[in-house]
Amino acid sequence: MGDRASNGRTVVERRSERELVVTRTFNGPVRLVFDAWTKPELFKLWWAPKSMGVPILSCEMDVRTGGSYRIAFGHDASDAMAFFGKYLDVSPPSRLVWTNDEGGDGAVTTVTFEEEDGRTLLVLQELYPSKEALDQSFVGMEDAMPEQFEQLDELLITLSASA
Fold this sequence. Notes:
The protein has helices at 30-38, 40-46, 131-162; strands spanning 4-6, 11-14, 19-26, 56-61, 68-73, 81-91, 95-99, 108-116, 119-127. It is of the alpha+beta class. Strands 1-2-3-9-8-7-6-5-4 form a 9-stranded antiparallel sheet, covered by helices on one side. The longest helix has 32 residues, at 131-162. The termini are far apart.
């Protein structure tokens, strides 16, 4: 499909009416990248785009097949916005699949991690129930994902240095 955005290292593209794919190679071994997606204390250091100015208030993750997650953003509990769902497949350190249950038409997200020469190729795929649901999400994703992944890159530098 035609919609594709890239900031050089992060590519966000629509593969079909219902599918969004984001790819990026990170300078870090797959073990560290997987940890950053599955350990709440690491995840909350990079997931919220700093430009939004909305911090993560809480991050609960039971990362196992059948487990659940809940991430709340906001300045305090009264204005918090939550994202939550279930893990459908957790295969460390190569694959994560989860649902996005906060809306009526949330996507199923699949993230794969593949190591090559000490670097990690990450492919994030979101499959939406309808074209309209993807249309709504795509606008925010093409700005947010590259920034989130830049923040993950910065975290990986720190983790690699202390590993």
